[in-house]
Design brief:
It is a single chain. The protein is α+β, with helices and mostly antiparallel strands. The chain is 27% helix and 26% strand. It is built from 7 helices and 9 strands. Strands 1, 2, 3, 4, 5, 6, 7, 8 and 9 form a 9-stranded mixed sheet that branches. Strand 4 and strand 5 form a beta hairpin. The longest helix has 13 residues.
């Protein structure tokens, strides 16, 4: 399986902050080790632990990390990797199915469009055209308090973000996603993905035959 890692770089000047933000990746693990992590990037783990997780993901053949940085300080990131072996999405044993696992932007840099920049750069130059990319959105991971949004407005925001790279809502009978109506599965099937892979993914999405 070809895992296309074509380094991309965009610089964005924020007049209100008088700072240049560098959106780039995929970032190799050795470069990530020299970076620092913003203290507010704590949605999934404590910042130091998440920094180590990013390095580990970047070391995987299929793993990719896209970052937003000021100098060498990470203020945002997005991760891609194979699904966890204990999750439903790994049961198809698909080499062309990857998860958009996490996207996070530091508190002081939200509202600048960095989430959109990170996502769009991830898909640049057809890097993921030979993959099915999925993300599972669970409301318990959302920063409802910090954003000031209710659960439904936050979901709309996440859907709008994913739609910037043509990821769309897909139905599933996955128990965790079905646990709350705001949770959702969003997917982008690359233009080069063969039909057998699409059919296998459909079988993973639905365990109950009557729903498939």
């Amino acid at each position: 399986m070809e895992h296309r890692k074509r380094f991309q770089l965009v610089e964005k000047y924020i007049p209100s902050l008088q700072k240049h933000i560098r959106i780039s990746g995929p970032i190799p693990p050795e470069q990530l080790r020299d970076m620092t992590m913003d203290a507010t990037l704590d949605a999934f783990r404590r910042p130091l632990e998440q920094h180590e997780a990013l390095i580990e993901i970047a070391s995987l053949p299929e793993g990719r990390i896209i970052t937003a940085t000021i100098d060498q300080h990470i203020i945002g990131y997005v991760t891609f990797h194979y699904p966890d072996e204990y999750e439903r999405w790994s049961q198809g044993k698909m080499i062309d199915l990857v998860e958009l696992g996490a996207i996070e932007v530091a508190d002081n840099y939200r509202g600048l469009g960095l989430g959109k920049d990170l996502i769009q750069l991830s898909f640049a130059e057809q890097q993921l055209d030979n993959m099915i990319v999925y993300t599972t959105e669970y409301y318990w991971h959302w920063d409802l308090e910090g954003s000031g949004l209710n659960v439904w407005d936050y979901r709309k925001m996440m859907e709008k973000l994913m739609q910037t790279v043509d990821m769309i809502w897909y139905a599933t009978d996955d128990e965790e996603i079905c646990a709350h109506p705001a949770n959702c599965l969003m997917v982008k099937i690359g233009a080069e993905v063969p039909l057998p892979s699409i059919e296998r993914f459909d079988r993973v999405r639905f365990r109950s035959r009557f729903m498939y």
